Amino acid sequence: MPNPQYPRLAFVDLETTGGNASVDSITEIGIVLVDEDGVREWSQLIQPETRIPAFIEKLTGISNAMVADAPRFEEIAEKLDKQLSGYLFIAQNARFDYGFLKNAFKRSGRVFKPAVLCTVKLSRALFPEHKHHNLDSLIARHGLSITGRHRALPDAQAIHQFWRHIHATQDTELLSTIIQKLVARSSLPPNIDQLRIDRLPDSPGVYLFYGENGLPLYIGKSTNIRQRVLSHFSADHRNHREMGLSQQLRRIDWVATAGEWGALLMEAKLIKQLQPIHNRRLRHKNSLCAWQLQQQDGHLRPVLAWAEEVDFGAQTGLYGLYHSQRDAQKALRSIADQNQLCLGELEIEKTAEGRPCFAYQLKKCKGACIGQEPAPSHAARLLMAMDKLKLKTWPYAGAVGIQEGDEIHVIDHWCYLGTAKNAGDLYDLLGSGRPAFDRDTYMILSKALKASKHLLYLDARPESHDGADFCG
H/E element holding 402? Predict the structure, then answer.
């Protein structure tokens, strides 16, 4: 049954070797075409040019032997392109099928840009009282008939049956309106309400993606929340990570900020708190360590200091920030190699008294280990080499604020206390105590303080807030 708005329909389903449209391959295509000439069906096994995993074989029934002599996608690309040209592309979880076909066509030198309708979104719009809208749920809920589930053509037939069923049971005008809106918005994830997208602000801040049961998936920041969130969805057919994120997404929240610095600080804070599974780089909460240079028996040597034992916000003379002893030693070895420093003097390598270190044997040490280079000379060169890694000492007597719009970001000894919007907020933050030193926050704040033209020297006394929020 063609729709008056879209007289030519293609109900499509694919079977693949996996879920990554960038690296996995199509194994079968099933299509039900509906147009002015009636209904036609077409299916084709595809040689994926890679092995089908055992669990996929078991799920679909498509074995490696079955596709051994099948054509490659490039061999049927022209025919398939002609079949689908001018048709509304309809699929269950359409972003998956469309993404695979778009990438396959691209590899064969063709551009594939049909109008797309997702039946998951269509079912959700028509039957919002139901929680699940996968194909098995639609089959059971609407009494659809199917044989050969998880094969491409039978699944495409089931989608066609769903289409016929809703056109026979739903108000035609309402259905047409919903379909038109969904086709226009086909780039959105299947489980996200358009109204929520419409409320996204065109302002700086942090956005939060949640999955099933409120699981934090991803936290990001932008100077334009709406624009950045939509950019995730526009590219998910060619990026496996974005596609996976889109399929898992169930809810979007956001926190607006006055500017970019507030967004950066809030992002780092929330990632540490919520530990979203897709923020691998910033979510680590490993112990921090840094090098200190200490005089020992007339020799200047690097000694590891740990954030659990030393207040990194207040301690002077720290060099580098590392998440593990291994990372710290790797960095120190690299500095020694680049500057001809002695591995024995740095205690990277244990050497017997009077015996040269390994670097000296490679002519990468000036002989401090055997007395050829005086200890003061080696110490001076070590200080110069380490200088570029030196952490900035907190330059203020107490807390300061970075003013951004109508907000004040309160920081103390490289720690972000929070953002104040009024005098009460400010006083509460100044009395809240400092959180643990955090590497990512330090990196953000060291740049922010350098760039800020509105730095405020804060006074934490209660009486200072009866007429002014800060002094300085």
Answer: strand 400-404
CB 219 within 8 A of CB 208: yes
Are the CB atoms for 137 and 130 separated by under 8 Å?
A: yes
| Interacting residues of 467 by C-beta distance below 8 A, sequence separation 6+ | none
SS3 of residue 134 by DSSP: coil
For 229, how many CA atoms within 13 A lie in the half-sphere containing its CB?
Answer: 29
What pTM did the predictor assign?
A: 0.57
- Residue 143 in tokens: 């009494």
Q: How far are the Cα atoms of 26, 177, 197 from residue 119, in angstroms, in the given order?
A: 21, 15, 19
Residue 327 neighbours by CB distance under 10 Å: 14
Query: Given the structure tokens 């990570």, which residue do they identify?
Result: 241
Residue for token digits 């028996």? 297
For 376-392, b/e burial (b = at least 16 CB within 10 A) is eebbebbeebbeeebbe
Q: Output the tens digit of pLDDT for each of the chain's 472 residues.
A: 556 667 899 999 999 999 888 789 999 999 999 999 999 999 999 999 999 999 999 999 999 999 999 999 999 999 999 999 989 999 998 888 998 998 899 899 998 888 899 999 999 999 999 989 999 999 999 999 888 888 999 999 999 999 999 999 999 889 988 998 888 666 677 788 777 887 899 899 999 999 988 999 999 999 999 889 988 876 555 566 777 788 789 999 999 999 999 999 999 999 988 999 988 766 555 578 999 999 988 889 999 999 888 889 889 999 999 989 999 999 999 999 999 999 999 999 888 888 899 899 888 999 999 999 999 999 999 999 999 999 998 988 889 999 999 999 999 999 999 999 998 999 899 988 888 888 899 999 999 988 877 788 885 443 333 333 433 3
Q: Is 286 in contact with 440 (CB distance < 8 Å)?
A: no
Residue at 189: amino acid letter: P
Q: Which two tokens stand for residue 262?
A: 């507030």
Q: Where are the alpha helices (DSSP H) in 69-134?
A: 73-84, 94-107, 119-126
Would you say 91 and 11 are in contact if contact means Cβ atoms under 8 Å apart? Answer: yes
3-class SS string, 453-466? CCEEECCCCHHHHC
Place of tokens 């048709």: 87
What letters, b where the CB count within 10 A reaches 16 and e where it falls short, cover 122-137?
A: bbbbbeeeeeebebee
* Tokens of residue 437, six digits: 């030193």
Give the residue from 122, 108, 105 showing the smallest Cα distance to 9. Answer: 122
For residues 16 and 189, the answer to whether their CB atoms sit within 8 Å is no
Is there a contact between 57 and 273 (Cβ–Cβ < 8 Å)? no
Number of H helices, E strands in the chain: 17, 15
> Which tokens hold the place of 271?
């990632």
